[in-house]
Amino acid sequence: MLLCAGSGTRARDVTGDVPKCLLEIDAVSLLARARAQLARAGVRDSVVVAGFEWRQLASAVGPTGTVRVWDGWETANNLWTLGANVDLLEGGGDRVILFGDVVFDPGILDALLDSPADVALAVDGSSRLEGTMRVRLRDGALEIGNRLAPAEADGNFVGILKLSERACAPVAAELARRFAEGRDRDDYYTAVLPDLAHTLSIECVSVGGNRWAEVDTPADYARARSIFETGRGGAGPCAG
């Protein structure tokens, strides 16, 4: 599942009226890169959860994927996005959930898929940036979010996680409960994970030497291009 519903207001100077995940590096959109990497890793089906300018996303995805439109994108964060679409966690099998504005080397996804944990989060232990989602895991207790002090964090959450088949039902139930109760409208979906850590195994999977970048601002986009652009029109890290 690729979470692409938001309008990306902080990046509006470079996106205009285009969804942020359609920004391009080497003439390939962030969305197309992520979908190519998922396919390369053996993930058979991908669902793009869209909101802002969803028709542009539907056109970009075409007949090779599924677009689910979430009408509440303007007034809520992605906890409610998933809370309103918990059926996407049903049907058996593992699930991979990605923020739509993340660019990453394929080794990050490979490491997540190899994890035996119920919840595997991609974490960069070398980075504890202000204004980002940070993670700390101690004796099975998980803290995650931008309120965690950088000095206390194990690293940055990269924006990609895997849920095992066993984890999908309890995560879906907690998301649905908070959505139905009108709670945590402004939270990320990861806010439900600490409450489930006593029943699910959780692993922070190191990104190792793999590169990643999250695009929230024009400066972030410039940085992502400086890291990943090859000048070869798409023959970058998503290829091969």
From TrEMBL:
Signal peptide: none annotated. Pfam families: NTP_transf_3 (PF12804). Coiled coil: none annotated. It comes from the Bacteria. Keywords: Nucleotidyltransferase, Transferase. Residues 2-128 form the MobA-like NTP transferase domain. This is MobA-like NTP transferase domain-containing protein. It comes from Clavibacter tessellarius.
